[in-house]
Amino acid sequence: MGMDVEGMMGSMGGKPSTIKRLLGLTLEELYTGVTKRVKITRKRGGVNSEKLLEIVVKPGWKKGTSVTFEHEGDEVQGGGKPANITFVIEEKSHERFQRSGDDLLIDYKLKLVDALCGTKLEVKCLDDRVLTVAVPEVITPGYIKRVPGEGMPKSKGGKGDLVLRFEVTFPSYISEPKKASLRSLLA
To answer: Are residues 121 and 161 in the same domain?
Structure first.
């Protein structure tokens, strides 16, 4: 499971050393929370043994959050306390969303007609809900729309925002009659 980030840290002053491992989680797991069971192998009495550790991930945890299991690592030669094992949360990349603190960011490409005339978007959320977002305003390139309370859970309650970032795609060709119609409409 995972990989050692720092390996064994020195055992100074009688304190046990610490083994750090990465625990990669999806945005969905960090959104809803999850219990991960991780099998570890440790050396006890000169013999390798396996143990199953349970990591209870709470909704909204951020990358870098760490969970320590005291004295669950290898025994130290010379009678010292067994090493601690610390799991450090890593965030796996997502195909649609990016996380920024408690906010979820998603990029949308809009046709010029939808950018000018408005549109409705259906956003599949991390908990599988489908959220309909009305975008009646005129969208300019780089426009950002916030949907409050639809981002990641916060540790002290509530949620961050869903942030929609827009790119406007322009047609590659417009016929002369359509150009004339557009000129009269937009003038």
So the answer is: yes
What residues form DSSP beta bridges with 98?
Answer: 105
Q: How far is CA 67 from CA 19, 36, 55, 99, 106, in A?
A: 12, 12, 8, 21, 30
Pick the range with the lowest mean pLDDT from 9-13, 39-43, 46-50. 9-13
End-to-end CA gap in the chain: 64
**Taking residues 3-28, what's their average pLDDT?**
70
CA distance 50 to 74: 11
Instruction: Please identify, among 56, 91, 126, the residue that sits at the C-terminal boundary of a domain.
Output: 91
**Residue 180 near residue 122, CB atoms below 8 Å:** no
The mean predicted confidence, pLDDT, of the chain is 89
> From CA 167, how far away is CA 107, in angstroms rounded?
8
* Overall pTM > 0.70: yes
pLDDT at 124: 96
Strand pairing category for 119-124 and 130-135: antiparallel
Q: For residue 57, how many other CB atoms are within 10 A of its CB?
A: 19
Side chain identity, residue 91: E
Question: Alpha-carbon distance 160 to 152, whole Å?
Answer: 5
The range of the structural domain enclosing residue 156 comes to 97-172
Domain count, the chain: 2
